[in-house]
Prior knowledge:
The structure is a single chain. The chain is α/β, with parallel strands linked by helices. It has one domain: Aldolase class I (TIM Barrel), CATH 3.20.20. Helices cover 31% and strands 15% of the residues. It has ten helices and ten strands. Helix 1 packs parallel to helix 2 and helix 6 runs parallel beside helix 9. The N and C termini lie far apart (57 Å). It binds iron/sulfur cluster. The site of iron/sulfur cluster has 14 residues, from loops. It comes from Fermentimicrarchaeum limneticum.
Amino acid sequence: xxxxxxxxxxxxxxxxxxxxxxxxxxxxxxxxxxxxxxxxxxxxxxxxxxxxxxxxxxxxxxxxxxxxxxxxxxxxxxxxxxxxxxxxxxxxxxxxxxxxxxxxxxxxxxxxxxxxxxxxxxxxxxxxxxxxxxxxxxxxxxxxxxxxxxxxxxxxxxxxxxxxxxxxxxxxxxxxxxxxxxxxxxxxxxxxxxxxxxxxxxxxxxxxxxxxxxxxxxxxxxxxxxxxxxxxxxxxxxxxxxxxxxxxxxxxxxxxxxxxxxxxxxxxxxxxxxxxxxxxxxxxxxxxxxxxxxxxxx
Length: 298
Ligand code: SF4
């Protein structure tokens, strides 16, 4: 599917420790409404998915206007908003948002409790608002798809099983849960000493979380997590990657049989952590009989 991202600016009401932007931003660049409308008009008519990202798109005063404009200009496209979801804690706003016809919302949730989530977003009160925002959007689950995103790093990986339970208990009707490790750029790079963790250290916690989510019938997608660090039963959840090839490496992969389908690993991860954990997957060895098997059937 053709995808076009519209980064509407850098302003945000969170200041996440692992943001891929530098937060707070060194410059206050935000696109004007006209810039964004020009961008939308310039997209190829074949664009099938248009994604609004930021900063935080939902805190712009022209947020609903932009969504209406996209739907008017590109009625065949699927429109998605990547947001911290806090604004949807206001039911009246959520209702107006639904009326724009936006198809899909993706909201990161960093932990199962306010103390940890707010420490990661560095925005007191953000957990309560985000959780309530998700609940309010779920009131419209027939009108808008919703996925919850979990960005994995050292501060939250041991809490993944608890987060999976929280999501299962709180968000009935949720479309899907998406999990992926941090890309070490922007704030994630600045704060990397606190954030870096090996994917193989994450694995047991991640797999317990996946078990819980699977039992509760969520669609689960793993991005940027290679096959070779997962048990085979979770391979069906490996959904690929969200970025262009140059940000990915297959440096350690040799003749791995999964290479064609594998999302690979972040280049930034290979640079900062190394690649020793990633082992090429070999074809299963052929059975060699030392003497002819007895094929007589009585
Ligand atoms: S060895 Fe490389 S290609 Fe194979 S699963 Fe691991 S990261 Fe992917």
